[in-house]
Amino acid sequence: MDTYMKLTAYGDNPEAALDMAEEKITELEELFSVTLSTSDIGRLNSSMGVPTEVDDQTSALISRSKILSEKTDGAVDITVYPLVREWGFTTGNYSVLSSERTEELLKFTGSSYISVSENTVTIPENFQLDLGSAAKGYAGEKAAEILKEAGISSAIMNLGGNIQTVGEKPDGSPWKVAVTDPLSPSEVICTISVRDKAVVTSGNYQRFFMGEDGRKYCHIIDPKTGRPVDNGLASVTVIGSSGTDCDLLSTALFVMGEESAVEFIKENSGFDMLLITEDGRVIITGNIFNDTEFTEKEIKNNAEVIV
Ligand code: ADP
Ligand code: MG
């Protein structure tokens, strides 16, 4: 998944459980990789409209992505890959796309055009899928399930910045998950105390390039415009029970922007959110406000707490 991962578990013989979790993550990487032509996603992306049989896990994740795409009015959309690729986010050969080319590629996007029937998936010709917005969250969720089945009740996993916890710390206290300050990425802005939850962040500070026009272009594409998101948000962290949903939603809420993200989180219970704007404002749901320790008092005092 093109990143570093660190899995930590406590209990009797955690090594065997961790080996199984690692195996699961490797298996999922081999199913979901967009750069591997033999992966399920690789095969779908060269399927030319022909129905393609995939692993149950692949069809499950595509289905979930479709549902959350619909729920977020298309803000997260696993069909934006043609744009992600041509902007250069896959290879590092970055280029600012012309509006003509953007329009052309947008014709080959839209999650509603994906059809999933049990484990057969069909995508229209010229469509390409990319599970980058969901794969790490899904992998974390599945790895957590495996650890629990193996009797582990205390673990924390960092899958490229996506945090998945199992239970609580061995001493019975909650896990403290650090959130990067998107405006100063070498620093932590706060730690959030959680038990048995996923904490997933999408932001514009990790993968981006500077255009010749001096502007910053980040790796998250607004499926409505086909262009990198530039809406004043610096990062969105989503906290919830399902790593998959948190990952999909962190991307979606980042695309939606401040106003719609706040509205969405108010209407959908079961998720908490920490949103940081490029002008340094912090918006946080009341549920986690008291479980969050900010590195500076000022930030806590100025945070906007939403219900
Ligand atoms: P990260 O990869 O840093 O964890 P995200 O979970 O937000 O961040 O996923 C971003 C990745 O998803 C991008 O690198 C790209 O491959 C893909 N992507 C970009 N924009 C979208 C979008 N609007 N919907 C779905 N996937 C996207
Ligand atoms: Mg995501």
What does this structure look like?
With 307 residues, the chain is an alpha+beta fold. It folds into 2 domains: 8-122, ApbE-like superfamily (T-fold), CATH 1.10.3980; 174-306, ApbE-like domains (T-fold), CATH 3.10.520. It has 10 helices and 18 strands. The strands form 5 sheets. The protein has an 8-stranded mixed sheet. A 3-stranded antiparallel sheet has the order 2-4-3. It is globular, with a radius of gyration of 19 Å. The model has no long low-confidence stretch (mean pLDDT 97). Bound molecules: adenosine-5'-diphosphate and magnesium ion (MG). The site of adenosine-5'-diphosphate has 20 residues, from helix 7.
Question: What's a concise summary of this model?
Answer:
With 307 residues, the chain is α+β, with helices and mostly antiparallel strands.
